[in-house]
């Protein structure tokens, strides 16, 4: 693809109504660090209508800027000069998450949850979880990492963790290798192991039923967190721990099966 000067603009699509800027590549720097000339060019050219969520909340954003950041938007831009690609629907995504995406697209940053009052920290953490899922879809690894950091910090500072309703979408919408899967499975494992938590494995039934990987990840996290500590051998000892009895029936089996 060749070498390009740091202040030259290369967006990811070619629009035949506008001057072609050169080779196609994705942004490698924060938009907030670009020169004034590049930023002005990113905010020129055609716009793209984007509809988000069940309510189809509407945004009209600069197509150069969108395609500068992600090949996902480039895939929705026509190369034949027709109007195809001027509209994009993200109906499975959350408008609050998209708000954060827009801020990052135009400013190169999102808000820091540490600057927010305590009563807003969890809602912001929840929005960052949904932003992570959105970024996973549209291929924005840098923002995905920012969203992860804000989610973890928000949970810690709010003193709250996601429940099964928040965990299930992570397993439904991210690949098996996702770090967010690893995070929520460890959160679930820790909650199950915590003697002071008012949850048990049954709390996460919807997650276990919905994705076998969740069960595997949680069990592995519990094994890792147990630090090699073994349970008492369930085959050792007598008593009637594993017998079935009618109400009030006495058990006469008291012998040990191991000598």
Description:
With 259 residues, the chain is mostly helical. The protein is 44% helix and 6% strand. The protein has ten helices and three strands. Strands 2-1-3 form a three-stranded mixed β-sheet. The protein is elongated and about 85 Å long. The protein starts with 35 loop residues before the first helix and ends in a 34-residue tail after the last helix. Residues 1-26 and 254-259 have low confidence and may be disordered.
Defining traits:
6% strand, disordered N terminus, 259 residues, disordered C terminus, mainly alpha, 44% helix
| First-last Cα distance | 75 Å
Largest sheet: 3 strands, mixed
Stretches where pLDDT falls below 50 for ≥5 residues?
A: 1-26, 254-259
Number of discrete helical segments: 10
Structural class: mainly alpha
> What do the pLDDT scores average to?
83
What percent of residues are in strands? 5-15%
In helices, the fraction of residues equals 40-55%
């Amino acid at each position: 693809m060749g070498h390009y000067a740091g202040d030259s603009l290369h967006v990811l699509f070619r629009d035949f109504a506008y001057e072609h800027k050169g080779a196609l590549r994705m942004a490698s720097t924060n938009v907030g660090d670009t020169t004034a000339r590049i930023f002005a060019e990113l905010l020129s050219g055609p716009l793209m209508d984007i509809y988000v969520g069940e309510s189809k909340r509407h945004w009209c954003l600069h197509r150069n800027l969108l395609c500068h950041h992600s090949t996902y938007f480039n895939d929705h831009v026509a190369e034949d000069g027709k109007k195809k690609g001027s509209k994009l629907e993200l109906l499975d995504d959350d408008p609050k998450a998209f708000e954060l995406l827009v801020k990052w697209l135009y400013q190169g940053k999102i808000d820091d949850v540490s600057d927010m009052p305590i009563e807003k920290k969890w809602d912001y953490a929840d929005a960052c979880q949904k932003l992570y899922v959105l970024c996973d879809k549209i291929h924005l690894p840098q923002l995905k990492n920012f969203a992860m950091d804000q989610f973890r910090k928000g949970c810690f500072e709010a003193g709250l963790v996601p429940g099964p309703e928040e965990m299930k979408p992570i397993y439904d919408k991210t690949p098996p290798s996702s770090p967010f899967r690893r995070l929520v499975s460890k959160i679930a494992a820790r909650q199950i192991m915590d003697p002071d938590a008012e949850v048990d494995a049954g709390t996460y039934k919807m997650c276990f039923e919905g994705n076998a990987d969740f069960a595997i990840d949680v069990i592995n996290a519990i094994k890792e967190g147990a630090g090699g500590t073994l349970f008492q051998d369930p085959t050792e000892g007598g008593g009637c721990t594993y017998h079935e009895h009618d109400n009030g029936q006495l058990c006469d089996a008291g012998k040990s099966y191991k000598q």
